[in-house]
Write a structure and sequence with these properties.
By secondary structure, the chain is mainly α. The protein has 13 helices and six strands. The protein has one domain. Helix content is 65%, strand content 5%. A two-stranded antiparallel sheet has the order 1-2. The protein has a two-stranded antiparallel sheet with strand order 3-4. Helix 7 packs antiparallel against helix 8. About 3% of the residues have low confidence.
Amino acid sequence: MILVLVAMILSLLAALWLMPKLIEGLKKHNMVVPDMYKKGRPLVPSKGGMILLFACSFMITVIPVLIYVSRQTLNNLINIDFLNTPYLTDMNYYIALVLLAYGTFGMFDDYLDMGRPLKIFMPFIFSAPIILLLNPDHLHLPLLGSIDLANTFLWIFTYKLVYRFLVIPIYVMVVANLINMHSGYNGLATGTSLIVLCALAGKSFMEGNSGDIATIGAFMGGLIALWIYNRYPAKIFEGNSGALMIGAAIGITIVVKGYLLSGFVMLLPHTVNFLIYIYWRIRRVTAPRDPKWQHVKWGRLRKDGTIKVPNMLTLKWIPPRLRRMTEKEATYWMYGLTAGFCLLGFFIPY
């Protein structure tokens, strides 16, 4: 736990120092997009996911060196052992490689618009490093508990093969795309994702086994810095690179810790948002001329500052559709909804 907190604090401080420089540079090079729910639609820098790429680079280069120095000094000076949890493990490095792969792909998408099919299927191969390391010996089933796979050939063949080469990459890919879809308000994607990551990290701490996700701690430091500048009123947007990296971090944490069911519960609002999207796509095909099924990406801002949304075909539009509220209020409703499901998932053991 101490190691993860050290990594998170160091990454947070470095990202907070760098963020104003990143915002200034993006403005200088006109990498801005309109903030749709503000009067006058001011231009806000996008591609804030660069700070998460920096966090990944920071956590696999600078942080291990600092921790090594801390071990050599603090342990010798005051004879303590709390920093001796291994950081330079294969799992931590492989997690960082997967996050960097997702972030790089997202950066290409920010600049070149890779298209939805590629965004759905291309990240499938990015989970390969995690597949190589995860080799489960037990199957955890709801109500049935843990099943030993060591002496059962059929289970070894089906579960290990399917879990490693199908469930893991699909789970990470799906979560990354769920996060990418669940955005649109200032701080919505970053805030809800931070809530989920905190719940997953807290669950890992409670079990006393967080050493293999130390890199996620450093990533969370960068994400906290991004949320501080992305919350209402946003000074920067995360972009596709940020959304895909955040989703990959959540998906990786879930599969590495084996929280497939609890992680699914925590992400239920994101899943419902996706199912609403699928329903809308089906209705567009079955009733293509009906105006209520036409594509509308943004709502409108009323004179009193509240949001007027055209329908309830995305989860974030349901609260302002039911009653008048501002963008900030609608975002807080989404935070509360996510926190509720995270609390529920926190007490599910697998």
